[in-house]
Amino acid sequence: MNPPTWLRGRLGVLLSLGPACAVETLPGVPGLLLAPVGLWLLFAAPVLLLRGFTDKVVSTRSGSLLLAAGLAVLLDILVALGVNTVLPLLGVERPLTRLVLASATTLVLLVLGILAPQSRRPLLRGAPLSGARPVAWAAAGALLLSVAGPIRLNNGLGGAVSTTALVVVTALIVLLLLRHARCSPMVLEAGIYAASATLLLLTSLRGWYITGHDIQREYLYFRLTLGGGFWDISAYTDPYNACLSITLLPVSIFRLTGIEDIYVFKAVLPLLFALTPVLVHRAVRNVASPLVALLSAVFFMAFPTFFTDMPFLGRQAIAFLLLACAMLVLTDSRRPLPLRRTVFTVLLAGVVLSHYSTIYVIVGTLATAFAVDKAWRLASRPGRARAHRAVGQGRTRTFLTWWTVAVPAVLALLWAGPLTHTGGQLESTLRVVASDLFGSGDARGGSSDTRYSLFGGAGVTPEERLAEYREDTIGYTRADRADGKYLPLDALAKYPTPVAEKENLPLTPAGRALDTVGLSVPALNGVLRQAAALLLQVLVLVGFVIALRGRKSPFTPVRDQITLTVGALAMMGLFTLVPQLSVDYSVLRAFQQGLLFFAPFIAAGALWAVRRAGRRAVPVLCVLVAGLLLDLTGAVPKALGGYPAQLALSNSGPAYDIYYPHAEDRRAAMWLNQRAAGDDLVVQTDRYSFSRLQTLFTVRTQDSVHPALLRSQSYVLLGSTPTRKDEVTVFFRGDLVTYRYPRDLLDTTRNLIYSNEGAVVYR
Fold this sequence. Notes:
By secondary structure, this protein is mainly alpha-helical. About 65% of the residues lie in helices and about 5% in strands. The longest helix has 29 residues.
């Protein structure tokens, strides 16, 4: 008798593990073979073996696969952490090698294959694929352009291909909206993934080296772990080093797949994060119509932080992936509640290991939601019946309980405290927050990102922020300045540092045509961005109100979605009103995280707004979504001009100036590192040149060249942007400020000892 199909598939996975492990342990295996084998061991095989378990946690086929993918990522982290913890006790000094990781992964998968329940659901057979052909063509075109566009820009060519990719992504999303009733869920989710991956890759693939902000430091700690073959938090007690999503996980991927290390960060991690909008869709689809679920995923992708910041935040990307898996578990009420609560808590434990700030915000959100739920129940009148549809689809038993809140909180405190000793930033933030709340602080404003909030103020001007920065630097260098370690203030008075003018793209023919009729294109672009930010917030509130009323809501949220949305909005309000929180954790990133909870309310608000269009409601919605996407992704400003260039579309603009790595900078850094190796002088460079070059320096380095911080004796390296444009950017209290740099100060007080027509070094 032939075994059933599900057993044959499971047996095939188990039989593949031995040959895969053998390939990993053989020397000289070509990368074309090593990469698919490593990806199989790390992701594909765990997903297939975990399906039987995830089938018991969530009820849908795609939901089971998505949850298995999130658990596979968490499993990879835990396997690497396990060998890193246990093997040194047995005398193995370098446990993070390919041999050890491949053997441990294979052993864990064998145990998983034997002990885990077996899935009786076919993987793909019988899955409906209605509407697949047009979606497949649009998705393939978008993904192809997402790679071709950055390559052209990296080679010094124009951004037309990348702009076309944004147009194709928008067309793909409009196609999904128009055909959502005729497309199967699998086709919709494949289209969402293609759109998500395209938006992320257009940014993440920029530059031939590591490009971005936080990713530079993430890559540094990854390299330190990789070089030592061992993760040791005591060697570098830094919160970044405590994020296993950017240390152990990338090391496992690099070791087992042979993918070049920079592309682990530039491609593999973004492609994993691209699953998050799909998870948003699947989670919302458990409680809402296909249109509401699709819109929720679209609004999550359309928020600018998704495609401008998240490609440079590997640790937060993995944390968001696991949090989205947790929301999938929360909204699928067709499976046993105790099991779902346990898996939810395990996923949040994975967030603890992945990113410190994300789990702190989650704990605050959960605690607020739990309190709101208790207050809601106390305020409800027993036996009171509602005349219309009940919020929560009649299910009154809530998902959140005291231990689903307490366990992640305790784990976060343990991880940041006695286990890694990296909680100093949290303690510092809480002290400043307490000072702000009780009126003993310096009363300075928070990040200017709060100006996008409905409840935010006007923000701080660049001139005011730069003056604060200069005042701070003079204050904490006063004693050393008196000892002659820094240049005297009277000498600095001759060299002002005015704020640089904002550089916009030149007006295109279309932009000039608008300008001739009296319409200011720069003002129009600014108004559109501000209006988009306010629109999303208004839609959240509108959707929330109509969901509570129940009658006209396009979807009926479960009770926990309502309380979690209250918690997320409360955290947003706290970040807006308490300055230090907006400085230490971006308000825009907090909103992106909040979208995992309240995206369906935005969708409900949008559907309510177009309800009077009747049969034309979906086409009107398509126009609204297309306009929002084209504007926020930068396609409209690129077509009109009059707005700062975006990194994904141009070789200019503020992001390009401070994040893009140049070969000239690297050559200057390597030369200076050799020159200063035997010298006692510190190397000074600006913050963003240091960020791009920190993996090359082994000498003492200071990441500021502001005149008030220039030492009397030091090396000074000016990167490409300060050299070519005489501009330097600082990041202070949550804001980027670019000022004109007085190069004549260096020409007067120092000697030029190196120049390569892109970067210079003074002594």
